[in-house]
Design a protein that fits this description.
The chain is α/β, with parallel strands linked by helices. It is built from 8 helices and 5 strands, in the order βαβαβαβαααβαα.
Length: 203
């Protein structure tokens, strides 16, 4: 069982976090431990390094997988960007996390997915018979509500970031557990693209 941080737009998408926790179950039946805390009180007057260290060492401290719930306005939330960035950071105290992106129904305009782990195609998408690669413009068109940082890492060869529609994990504990386990197992082999500067205000 892995400690998971859930990153999402609190005002819009709280119901989906609650649904994820309900799916998770309780006590011995859980498939993950919820390590989420609200990072909304961190000042943007801090430097990028100070923000990264504060979130990684204080808020994400005991977690090894970050689930990003993507709704209509998630990409414009600076704290979500900070949480993703900090999840990718391999610190001396707390190491980088695996990242799983879940597209919520409100943002799922084009039924699509991106796989990055061994056996993921067979386990999650057995009905798909062919796969297509995209350039940046293609990914931006496919995922109009994904942040630039996530798209950077979908395209980055060393990163292992999966994007899955909510419909694939909703009430399917087996698939959710597979994706969390895969993100955890591959996290140490991830080489994230962290070149993009942190967002400084909501957009």
């Amino acid at each position: 069982m892995h400690n998971v941080f859930i990153s999402y737009h609190h005002a819009n998408d709280q119901a989906y976090k609650e649904a994820l926790l309900n799916m998770n179950g309780e006590d011995e039946e859980r498939i993950f431990i919820d390590g989420s805390v609200d990072t909304g009180d961190i000042s943007d007057d801090l430097s990028d390094e100070e923000i990264r260290e504060k979130i990684r060492d204080e808020y994400l401290r005991d977690t090894s997988v970050t689930i990003v719930l993507v709704g209509l306005e998630t990409k414009g939330r600076k704290h979500v960007d900070w949480e993703i960035y900090s999840s990718m950071f391999d610190g001396t105290v707390n190491k980088k996390s695996g990242i799983l992106v879940v597209i919520l129904p409100s943002a799922d305009l084009n039924p699509a997915c991106t796989v990055s782990h061994e056996n993921e195609k067979e386990k999650i998408y057995p009905e798909y018979k062919s796969w297509t690669s995209y350039d940046r413009a293609g990914y931006e068109n496919l995922y109009p509500f994904l942040s630039d940082r996530i798209i950077d890492n979908i395209m980055y060869e060393g990163a292992k970031v999966s994007v899955v529609p909510w419909s694939k994990v909703n009430n399917d504990r087996e698939k959710l557990q597979f994706l969390i386990d895969a993100a955890f197992n591959d996290r140490t082999n991830c080489e994230y693209d962290m070149s993009r500067e942190l967002m400084r205000q909501d957009s």
